[in-house]
Structures are given as structure tokens and as C-alpha cells.
Amino acid sequence: MRNLIDILDFSTEELDSLISVATDIIDNPDKYREACKGKILGTLFFEPSTRTRLSFTSAMMSLGGSVLGFDNPASSSTTKGETVQDTIRMVSAYTDIIAMRHPKEGAPIAAAQVSRVPIINAGDGGHYHPTQTLTDLITINRKCGRFNDLTIGICGDLKYGRTVHSLIAAMSRYENVKFILISPDELKLPDYVKEAYLEMMGKDYEESKDLESVIPSLDILYMTRIQQERFADKNEYERLKDSYILNLSKLKFAKPTLSILHPLPRVNEIDVDVDDDPRAHYFDQAAYGRYIRMAAILKLLDAKNEEGKRNDDGVQDPTRECTNPHCLSIDERGLKKLFRDGRCIYCDQTATKKK
Ligand code: CP
Asked: Please, which residues bridge with residue 180 across strands?
């Protein structure tokens, strides 16, 4: 069985194939109207969502399938203390595939360890958001026409922005891609992402605090929201929230072929005047989410007999502990604490040696 926990669960060839299927769905929707007849998608959203949950729902309904689930954990037995793994044990008995969003990093990995059906990570805390990356990739494919030879500026909250981490993982596999990481010092890209996808892959990247000075060199500008809900210190959020605001005067210095992307929702980081600029593609990007998620559902249901990546291939190590307060492994009862290469397998953070 295959899951989609991390964008690297799909090879670049599989991503090309998903984009081809999504394109065919856009061109020939009638061909797919009964493709998932009789199948049920579970949507378990322990965190708020507009685009991801509704595009998954629309995707399954457009394939002739049904959807059940919750959009608020307060209406589930989570409030009675049920663990993520027990919830998944139950919901995977009632559905054929599950898309889940959870505030804790690694929750979809814990889910995949016990699920009877494929798990799709619809966002786990500040960690990863691979189906947003599918949406980003189809947009890059349609608007730029290539994945190689691109200078990509990623601007805003690179620390907590899970879409950023998954996008860097995906784009690091292509040739001659340069990343310009634009953020305040407090919101720089975490080391685990930098090490795994930029340094170990030998990618060209630079860090900057200044959007205006780098904008002329960019082929893609990926703006992101400062993730208010992840800040422990609300005063820090207030200080950083308007660090970057893209407006028409800044865009005067950008290439005419620039593609402006944003996973949305936006707060202040893109002025509404930019929406009418032909380089602004973020609403098309969100619209493509429905079709690429249709392709992903078809792929995962079709791959039920294929071997997927194991989600429990770490080792138990009583001398180490994960101290990331945002990791599910800290507070999920009964979850095996597992480590790989000195890192927690759930959140990828370096595990500390116990004293
Ligand atoms: N891009 C994204 O994940 O949006 P939602 O939070 O609305 O699902």
C-alpha cells in the first residue's frame, strides 16, 4: 500500500504522471465522473482549512465517490482523549482512503503505521504539506513550462511554513534550480530542511532579508503567510507579521515572466492590487488543487497492491529523546519512539541524548 506523507513518496516520473492525469481531467472531466464510484474518502481535519479540505471533498465527489469526516476535532472523540492512532484504526475501517491534517508534526506517519487504507498528509504542524506541493508543481508546470533552470525566491515564514519545506524537497530534485530564501532571522529555514534538501543535494541557495534587492533575479516568487498559530510568543508574531508586503511598486523591478505563487490563505503579504497583475497565479494555483488531488486519489487507490515506504523503519533508542514540543511523539500514548540517523522519524528534528 502507498501513502503520501512526504512529497518524496512520489518519484519525479510519478509527479509527471500525476500532472498528466490532472491535465487530462481538466480537459476531459466526463471520463472520470465514475472513476471512484463506491469509494469513500475520510477527511480528518484536526486543524482549520478552506482549500485543502474542500478541494479534497470536491475531488472525491467529482470522481463519483463519497466523503465522510470532521472539520473540527471538537466534534470527534479526540475530545474524550482518543489517540490519533486509535482514531485512524477506526476511520480506516469505514473508508477507502484518508486525508488528514493535524497540528502535531509526524501525525500522518503515526497514522500510516496502523491504517488499513492509504494516508494522505494534508498538513502536519509546521513540518510538511505534500498535496500543496502537488498544487504548486502543476502551477509551475503550466505557468513556467519547466522544472529545471529556475531561480525560486521563497519569502516569509520559512520556519513554520510547511508548504515551503515540501516545495524545497520537491524542487531540489531538478537541475539548475537556485533557491533564494527571504526571511527575517527569526523565521529562517530549519536546519533539517536545509541539510536534507539543499546541502546534501548540493543545491545552490542564498539567504536574504531583503525582497526588493533579489526580486529582479527571480523566475518564481513564492510568498507565504507568517504562521500566527505556530508562535508561542504572540508579541513576536505582532513584530514580524508584516515583514514582507508584495506590492506593485516592488514588482516594477521583477521580470515580465515572473510567476507569483502563494499557497494561501494570504493576510497582508500580497497587496490586493497585485491580483490583477498577469504574473499573479495564486488563485489559479488553488483552483488546480482540485484536479491534482483527483489524480493523487486515483493513483493511491490504484496502487493498493504496491509496496510503499515504511513508516516505522526507525530504531528504538532509550538513550535518546525527541524534545520538539510540536512533535506528536511527545504526547501520543503508546506510540513507539523511533529514531533514524539520530533524528526523530516523526518530525525529523535531531534527537537529544538523555542526560
Ligand atoms: N494552502 C492551504 O493549505 O490552505 P488551507 O489551509 O485553506 O487548506
From this structure: 153, 206
CA distance 107 to 329: 8
Tell me the whole-structure pTM to 2 decimals: 0.97
User: Terminal CA-to-CA distance of the chain, rounded, Å?
Assistant: 39
Q: Which atom of ligand 1 is nearest to the CA of 52?
A: 8
Report the catalytic residues.
51-52, 80, 101, 129
Rounded CA-CA distance 186/193 in Å is: 16
Per DSSP, the residues of 37-62 read: TT-EEEEEESS--SHHHHHHHHHHHH
Distance (Å, whole) CA 120 – CA 45: 12
3-class state of residue 352 by DSSP: strand
> Sheet containing 204-208: which strands, arranged edge to edge?
204-208, 177-182, 150-155, 220-223, 259-261
For ligand 1, the distance from its centroid to the CA atom of residue 111, given in whole angstroms, is 21
Which residues' Cβ are closer than 6 Å to ligand 1?
A: 49-52, 123, 132, 263-265
Half-sphere exposure of 346 (CA within 13 A, CB side): 31
Pairing of strands 343-344, 339-340: antiparallel
Element at 195 (helix H, strand E): none
Ligand 1 center from residue 267 Cα (angstroms): 13
133: nearest Cα among 263, 33, 246: 263
Tell me the mean pLDDT per 10 residues along the chain, length 355: 97 98 98 98 98 98 98 95 98 98 98 98 98 98 98 97 98 97 97 94 95 98 95 93 96 98 97 98 98 98 90 93 96 96 96 88
* Strand bridging mode 97-102 / 40-45: parallel
Q: Are 212 and 250 in contact (CB under 8 A)?
A: yes
Predicted confidence at residue 354, as pLDDT, reads 86
Q: Which region holds residue 106: left if phi is over 0, alpha if psi is between -120 and 50, else beta?
A: left
Nearest Cα residue to atom 7 of ligand 1: 50
